[in-house]
Amino acid sequence: MDQWLPLTTLFGSVIWAAIYFTWGRVASAHEHGRKNTAGLEGSIQFAVLKAASHCGAGCTLGDILAEGLAAVLPGILLFLGWQHIFIERTFAIWILDYIIAFVVGIAFQYFSIQPMRHLPVKAALIRALKADALSITAWQVGMYGLMAVAQFWLFRTFFGGDAVAAQPEFWFAMQLAMLCGFVTSYPVNWLLIRIGVKERM
Hints:
single chain; mainly alpha; 77% helix; 0% strand
């Protein structure tokens, strides 16, 4: 959990920092041969929390990169359907968000699996796809759900239009949306770990 703390606190703020300092450091200490005083070893809840947080770290980084790319190169949104398939610019951004979040999330999973299992590149990539494709999708669905409420109702009702990545209101809503993503990905990660598709971290 240590290596993902900076990214998980981007979506989880002080909640994830508190989780890390309360339980994550204890679990890490146990992994390095020191006593686990919190009794966390073997806890499915903590395993799922770590798996969903790991997924969230990739999704968060992917979404930040996508929003930045859309701001710098808005023409890419035309390629993704804005103005000729979608009237709403937001839908094209969500496609870009999903693509980049998916690639980053699978890469994160690959670089977790490959060193643990010492698998060839193709085999490790297939395992990463099996482990995280549904998890990433579930995360993005939760995130899009809250962002749809924010963009299509709250911002338009109270501010007169959509928020964009240059506005702090956008990132405040995005942080809440990421927490919704955690909620929707948690049961998916639980199932994937339970049936053995995803490894405990």
